[in-house]
Amino acid sequence: MASRSDPVTGLKGVGPARAKQLANLNIFTLGDLICHFPRGYEDRTKLVPIAELRADTPACFRAVVMSTPRTAHIRKGMDLTRVAVADYSGRINLTFFNSKFAAEALQYGGEYIFYGTVSGDYGGYGITNPVFETPDSPPAATRRIMPIYPLTAGLNNGTLTKLISLALALCDPPEEIIPAEIRQEFDILPAETAYQVIHDPKTMAEAQAAKRRLIFEEFFVFSAGLSLMRAARAEKKVPAYAHTDLTPFYESLPFALTNAQKRAVREILGDLQKGTPMNRLVQGDVGSGKTMVAAAAAYCACLNGFQTALMAPTEILAEQHYESLGKLFAPLGLHTVLLTGSQTQKEKRMAREALSSGEAHIAVGTHALISESTVFANLGLVITDEQHRFGVDQRGRLSAKGQDPHILVMSATPIPRTLALLMYGDLDVSVLDELPPGRQKVDTFLVGESYRARINAFIRKQAEAGHQCFVVCPAVEENQELDVKAAAAWAETLRKTVFPDLRVSLLHGQMKGAEKEAAMAAFARGEADVLVATTVIEVGVDVPNATLMVIEDADRFGLSQLHQLRGRVGRGSAKSYCILTTHNRNEDTIRRLKALCATNDGFKIAEEDLKLRGPGDFFGSRQSGLPAFRVADLSLDMTTLRDAQQASKEWIERFGQSDTKEARALRERVAALFQRAEGTMN
Q1: How much is the pTM?
Q2: Cα(262)–Cα(8) distance, rounded to whole angstroms?
Q3: What's the order of all strands across the beta sheet hosting 468-472?
Q4: d(Cα 429, Cα 420) in Å, to the nearest integer?
Q5: How high does pLDDT run on average in the chain?
Q6: Tell me, what's the pLDDT at 654?
Q7: CATH 3.90.1150.10 applies to domain 46-143
Q8: What's the pLDDT score for residue 255?
């Protein structure tokens, strides 16, 4: 028997050219080939009389050839073969293009099983290029459930089907990782059966049962991995925080925390008192007050003699955190330092000296925090803001600056709780589902191009009132194929033609880092009335004076992303607005965009986004550390996910420490899964 790790080039018919085609599908080994699952199926088991064939509907039928196939040379490189076939109910014409096989194989008076789709033919209706075989041949192209695979150029479904069949015949059965009692409890097929049936089901019910096993298996392995990671973390011992009285901190605040913030702080304090490393996500809508929750955690760390590091994705955001935390902590006797790449060498040296000596209690910065020259005296808490912007490796390097420091990550992208548990791996989740008093609701409108003059007039009105406006475009440069507004060209139009008397600036992702920082900082200082930008502003500095967000071609964005963009306004005391423009009149598109107009609740929007377009890439799974699922679809398979999570919990309790073959195989699968996910980010 062959091993699943054997290269696919060992298969008959796989030479260099075929291997290259398979590589385009990330198929390199026999195991990769076996795990290249169908994206769907065609049910070719039912034979339909010719009279019952319907246009645009594929079907199998049994018929006799009623005429000798006739081949005509249409033009260079194009031959057309026609033949008439019939059964007891009727007659239909078949047409084949460049098929010498059909011309020779189809014999007058012979009986065959055909599969194809009725469509308009020359002179009437017929079927073009149907597959066929004789009734006494083994079912291959007809009379079976046909798996339909993801393909690439030069590789057709039939070839891939044959190669997968060869790999299955050559390889040992897959190792079973789910104990029999759990399979029985959750009605799950054995692995060997599932991997065979998924590629060659006899019925659609069989195909669904095999698919459910594979979906369950993916979720089971992932959930077990999270449980094992949590168990490993629980074995680590760190000093339990004895001092958790935050009264001086609360009394220094000019406002009261919301109930949601208080709940999150209680959860964090509970973690800090356990004596094991905290690993917690604070997830909240834009403006929900995550920074104050993080500040409470940092204050508690300082009370217990530990330093805190807060890493932000941009320098301007780091500077904003530094200013706000510095003002907050200074009256409490705590020293905050800033560390970014653009600082002078002297500034960096002074900050690092303060950290290494223990003089500084809180460090706020960017990637400069993880440089080798940055040393902490006693780092106890690591906070990452908009954590999906950092790779696993970066977060790990910052954590390595301390002895198993507590981890707190923040994100302003609301997602459904179950999805958050997956996206954020083994983190515990605190949800801020309440906005602080005074936070402005942003009125949102959906309009077409006919409203352009009114949009421009409203931009001018806001500017004349002393306010600022964001204009977001989906592209940097013009794209005729997509017909979307381009930021650079649109900024030029606004600057020269529409608002020659206003200050219009530009910001996009293709600008150098320093240029982007400078453009955003200038806008924050009020040096521009209108900032035309791409989604690079999705995570950025607060501009309380910005009261209007215009999003061009809004149909090009997901709902959650639109909500994030909208969150750039409404941060001050003035009434704020968001205008969505679109040329698209598709009913589903309009329904989706109107859902955003109907609410400012990011969690409701996220739920709607999940329903409408699936999980997609809410955070960028490569950056979050989420392994890719081959079969599972989070928008469709939530019931199976819950079953798998329950099953993995039972497995940990029953077999987590056992040395059975199944337990060893599962631990190996878990290790391989998370190593593969992490490897994509390093």
Answers
A1: 0.66
A2: 57
A3: 442-447, 576-581, 546-551, 468-472, 530-533, 504-507
A4: 8
A5: 87
A6: 78
A7: no
A8: 87
